[in-house]
Every structure is written in structure tokens, then in C-alpha cells.
Amino acid sequence: MATPPIFTLLLICCFCLKIVISATTNITTFLTDPETLLSSSATFKAGFFSPTNSTNRYVGIWYNIEESDAMEIVWVANRNNPINDSSGMLIISEDGNLQLSDGQNMIYWSSNVSHQANSTSVAHLLDTGNLVLVSSATGMIIWQSFEHMTNSLLPQTRIIIDLTIDNGLYEDEKPILRSWKSASDPSNGRFRIGMIPFPITEFVTRDGDKTYWLSGPWNGSLFLGVPYMSQNTFEISFDHLEDTLEILYSVANVSLLEHFVLNYDGNVVLKYWDDDDRRWRISWQSVQSECDIYGKCGPFGRCNPKDSPICNCLNGFEPMNVDEWSEGNWTSGCVRRTPLQCSNTGRKADGFWKLKHMKVPHYITFGRAADEDDCRRKCLETCSCLAYAYTVGIGCMIWDETLLMDIQVFSGDGADLFIRLAYSELGDTQHFINHLLLNSKF
Ligand SMILES: *[C@@H]1O[C@H](CO)[C@@H](O)[C@H](O)[C@H]1NC(C)=O
Ligand SMILES: *[C@@H]1O[C@H](CO)[C@@H](O)[C@H](O)[C@H]1NC(C)=O
Ligand SMILES: *[C@@H]1O[C@H](CO)[C@@H](O)[C@H](O)[C@H]1NC(C)=O
Ligand SMILES: *[C@@H]1O[C@H](CO)[C@@H](O)[C@H](O)[C@H]1NC(C)=O
Ligand SMILES: *[C@@H]1O[C@H](CO)[C@@H](O)[C@H](O)[C@H]1NC(C)=O
Ligand SMILES: *[C@@H]1O[C@H](CO)[C@@H](O)[C@H](O)[C@H]1NC(C)=O
Ligand SMILES: *[C@@H]1O[C@H](CO)[C@@H](O)[C@H](O)[C@H]1NC(C)=O
Ligand SMILES: *[C@@H]1O[C@H](CO)[C@@H](O)[C@H](O)[C@H]1NC(C)=O
Questions:
Q1: Nearest atom within ligand 8 for CA of residue 392
Q2: What is the pLDDT of residues 207-253, one digit of tens each?
Q3: pLDDT tens-digit profile of 53-93?
Q4: Ligand nearest to the CA of 97
Q5: What does DSSP assign to residue 394?
Q6: Residue 356: closest CA among 201, 222, 227
Q7: Is the Cβ–Cβ distance between 31 and 24 less than 8 Å?
Q8: What percentage of the chain exceeds 70 in pLDDT?
Q9: Ligand 5 atom nearest to CA at 117
Q10: What are the two backbone dihedrals, phi and then psi, of residue 228, each rounded to the nearest 5 degrees?
Q11: Residues with CB under 6 A from ligand 4
């Protein structure tokens, strides 16, 4: 109603123009709903969309695949600020920012980079799916969607973690990815992915303030809590700089359309486009069974998806609350049956129970040890040491003065975990293994 006629005319003209030039590759002035921007090799599209079962309008990026049910949104600009009609316009504002507004000139989203007044810029959609804003004066990228990810991680993305702030994600820290609220609502959902950089790098998914999933420690080529990771198609590399950690995710085969998504249900999935079946498939997911959910079996519990029930106490431990445990409520976990001998004299020294192919517990301490024997000795000499593991790439891991949480039995990969127990809790086999290990060097 209040729209000046000249403006309406301009809009109509641009709409005509759009029909003529069907594939826009740069935004130099503006893009109106439902126009789209195409990446140079036409792999990605950016523009206006509505999620399934929603009439809200958002600006986003998706794979340029014709199948209508395959619209795979990988980025959303105004995720928490939808436009409720089709009057949206993505413009290059006077100060050179990329800005989303509606017919009433209300601003829904902005690239919001501080910039000189009257400077011009151009927006391009790169063939990696990265929407970049380039200053016309300097030719430099002043803003890019890869630095403001929503729920998806595309290959060639460089994640930069500021090591001067704790990235444990308990407060209001910026997550690497944040899930949608539901399949039809891209607004900030419950789940976030962060990175725990110390003492050993690992990824964490949190549900609000609760830990939901842990990748396990990074050994230099894979995460110990992700079995069969070496069989995957992607590569992750870490680059420790002074105050930052740079993570680069890449794929070996660039023609494979693949990306990670943090789903609204908290699952991290690796999706790829199956060209024969013409649909997206999942090649990996973080939560494959209940055992992958953090702390499923409580402290000193051990989860095995192949067991029934899935939770058991570690050897030498018994349920903290027998009634709860037998009803399948495992949250309070298990307690030690026989106290450790530790430095008390008069009894035989403590030993270790060896568990193979384990997802190792959380709260690791880096044990400085020359080799596995040294690691084992360090653990025995410290009364508070509850367990140790020694792996190639990481070395000596020690669990100290804490509860052993998130222990899972894998069918392959993982690590050998040694749980410290009183001598009387160790069976003949374990005594034999301990004897061998203790004497291997002497
Ligand atoms: C888009 O911008 C790039 C870089 O400024 C330029 O090389 C290209 O020719 C432009 N494309 C069109 C269609 O104007
Ligand atoms: C959309 O709505 C239909 C009907 O209510 C429902 O069956 C379908 O699961 C919904 N799709 C999504 C993605 O929410
Ligand atoms: C759409 O949003 C505008 C601006 O926020 C508001 O004034 C208008 O009432 C909304 N319309 C509907 C149908 O919700
Ligand atoms: C732009 O950034 C400033 C300062 O960082 C912030 O206060 C403001 O809310 C932001 N505006 C938008 C539209 O995001
Ligand atoms: C920006 O451009 C306007 C109109 O051309 C002009 O009035 C104003 O002085 C300019 N501002 C700066 C900071 O150059
Ligand atoms: C790369 O991926 C494409 C698409 O899935 C496939 O057709 C091709 O065979 C793959 N190339 C190699 C070397 O694996
Ligand atoms: C399981 O046990 C915990 C600890 O005693 C209790 O807080 C929780 O409510 C129980 N959960 C269910 C589902 O009974
Ligand atoms: C990480 O662990 C895997 C499996 O145990 C092993 O093959 C690989 O060599 C380790 N990486 C490094 C850098 O040691």
C-alpha cells in the first residue's frame, strides 16, 4: 500500500529481468524473493526458501539438485527471524553489507561487518557452497557464510577455534554448529557442537547444558570414540597455532557431494548424494545406539549395544542402587566392591583389568610417560589413578580422582583400557596378563 509506485515499477522490471537472466551469479544490487543465486559450476544455489510444512521465508544455501524432495539446506541467514510473506529482498546496503529486509524495509538479517560508508561490495556464491561478500575497492572477502555456519559443515570449511576462551560450550559460547528446532523450523535448536581442545582434542555435542555425545580423543588421524572412522571418505586436519586451533574438513573425492549435519534430534550425520538412487543417504552417524548417548550406564558402568541389557558394571563394581539398576534405570551407575590397596601395606598390590576395543571414559589427564610400562607404573604409584590407556598417537592417558563415565564396548577399533582393581578382584587370567606386562621390560 505504502510502496511508492516507482519502487513497484522497479521491482516488476527486476522480476522481468530475472526471467531473462535465469542464472544470477553475483549480487551487485539486490535479489528478490523468489530469485536465486547460482554458484559458478552450478553445484549450489542461494536464495529464498520455505522449509517443508512452513510458509515462512528464509534466505539460505542448498544443493542445486532438481529433485523436489531433496532440497538439502546447508545454511540459513535469518534462522531466528523469518519473513512471513514474499516481500523479502537481499540487498547490498549503502555501507556494503549484505542485508535482508522486507517490503516495509524492516531488517531481518545483516552480514553486519563494520565497513566504510559508501563502499561497494559484491556477493558471490562459490562452488564450495560458501557465500562470500567481496569489497569492490580491495577485492578482499569481508564476510563469508563458512565463518557463520548454522547446522551443516561443508567440505573445505576451515573452523577456527579461539583457544583463549574455553570452548566447552557451557555458557554462551559460539558453537561450531547449532541444530534446527525441528524439520520445519531452522531457528536455534537444543543441540550444539563444540570442541574441547584440552588436554586432548575432542568434539562434543551438548543438549542445552548436558553432554549428549563425545567423539573421544583425537589421536592424530582419528577419534578414538568413533569406531571404523578410517573407513570414511573424509579427512580432518588440525593446525595448532598460537592462540587458535584450525580444523579443516575435506573430502578425498571432490565430486562426491557430502556434508555433516547436526540434526534437530542431536545426531551428527554424514550425508552423501547417491546419484544412482537420486537421494541423500547417511554414511555415518554419531548416535548409532543408546550406548553412544553420554553417561547412559552411569559412572563405572559399561555399555555394549550387543548385550541385553546394554548396561553392565565394570568388573569389580556393583550397582549403586540394585532396584533402579534392575529396572533399567542405570543413571546412578556402579560402585567399587573391594577398596583399592593403594599405599596401604599388608595386602597384595592392586592390578589392572584389561578391556579391549573400548570407547575410553571422559575427563582424561595427560600422563607424561616414556612408554606403556611407564604409564602403567605412573598409574599404580598414584593412589587416585583409577585407569590408564596407552595408544599410538596420544601416549599415556590417565583417569584420576574422578568417575569413569561414557565407557562403551566397540566391536572393533577403540583402545585397550586398563581398570585398576584390588588384587582379590582380579581373576587368574588378569593376574597372568598383569604378570606378563609387569615383567615385559625386566
Ligand atoms: C561476478 O563477479 C566476479 C568477481 O568480481 C566476476 O569475475 C564475474 O565476471 C562476475 N559475474 C557476472 C555475471 O557479472
Ligand atoms: C509435514 O506435514 C505432514 C502432515 O502433517 C507430515 O506427515 C510430515 O511428516 C511433515 N513433514 C515434516 C518434514 O515435518
Ligand atoms: C507479518 O510480519 C509483519 C512485520 O513483522 C507484521 O506487521 C504482519 O502483521 C505479519 N503478518 C502476518 C499475517 O502475520
Ligand atoms: C551488529 O553488530 C553489533 C555489534 O557487534 C550488534 O550490537 C548488533 O546487534 C548487530 N546487528 C545485527 C543486525 O545483527
Ligand atoms: C556518501 O555518499 C553520499 C551521497 O553520495 C554523500 O552525501 C556522503 O557525504 C558520502 N559519505 C561519505 C562518508 O563519503
Ligand atoms: C567420486 O565420486 C563420484 C560421485 O559419487 C563417483 O562417480 C566417482 O566414481 C568417484 N571417484 C572416485 C575416484 O572414487
Ligand atoms: C533414575 O534414577 C535417578 C537417580 O536415582 C532418578 O533421579 C531418576 O528419576 C530415575 N529415572 C527414572 C526414569 O525413573
Ligand atoms: C590412530 O589410531 C589408529 C587406529 O588405532 C592408528 O592406525 C593410527 O596410526 C593412529 N594415528 C596416529 C597418528 O598415531
A1: 14
A2: 998 999 999 999 988 999 998 888 887 889 999 888 899 999 999 88
A3: 999 999 999 999 987 677 899 999 999 999 999 999 999 99
A4: 4
A5: T
A6: 227
A7: yes
A8: 87
A9: 13
A10: 60, 25
A11: 110, 112
C-alpha cell at 440: 615385559
What does the pLDDT average to over 283-293?
Answer: 96
DSSP 423: G
Residues 356-400: pLDDT tens digits?
Answer: 999 999 888 888 899 999 999 999 999 899 999 999 999 999 998
For the CA of 96, the nearest ligand: 5
Tell me how far the alpha carbon of residue 118 lies from the centroid of ligand 5, in angstroms: 6
- Quote the cell numbers at residue 167: 570452548
- Region 264-279: mean pLDDT is 94
- pTM given for the model: 0.88
Supply the residue whose CA is at minimum distance from atom 2 of ligand 5.
118
DSSP string computed for 191-235: EEEEEE-SSS-EEEEEETTEEEEE---B-SSSBTTSTTGGGSSEE
Nearest atom of ligand 5 to the alpha carbon of 118: 1
CA–centroid distance, 330 to ligand 7, in Å, is: 8
Residue 279, CA atoms < 13 Å, CB-side half-sphere: 4
Ligand closest to Cα of 321 equals 7
CA 76–ligand 4 middle distance (angstroms): 17
Q: Could you write out the DSSP letters of every residue in 294-306?
A: TTTT-TTEEE-TT
Q: Is the dihedral of CA 108, 142, 129, 208 positive or negative?
A: negative
pLDDT of residue 56: 98
Number of Cβ atoms within 10 Å of the Cβ of 369: 19
Ligand nearest to the CA of 100: 4
What single-letter amino acid sits at 47?
G
Q: Is the CB of 116 under 6 A from ligand 5?
A: no
Does residue 112 have its Cβ closer than 6 Å to ligand 8?
Answer: no
Residue 190: CA count within 13 A, CB half-sphere: 11
Expressed in angstroms and rounded, the spacing between residue 102 Cα and the centre of ligand 3 is 10
Instruction: Give the pLDDT of residue 440.
Output: 54
**Percent of the chain's residues with pLDDT above 90:** 67
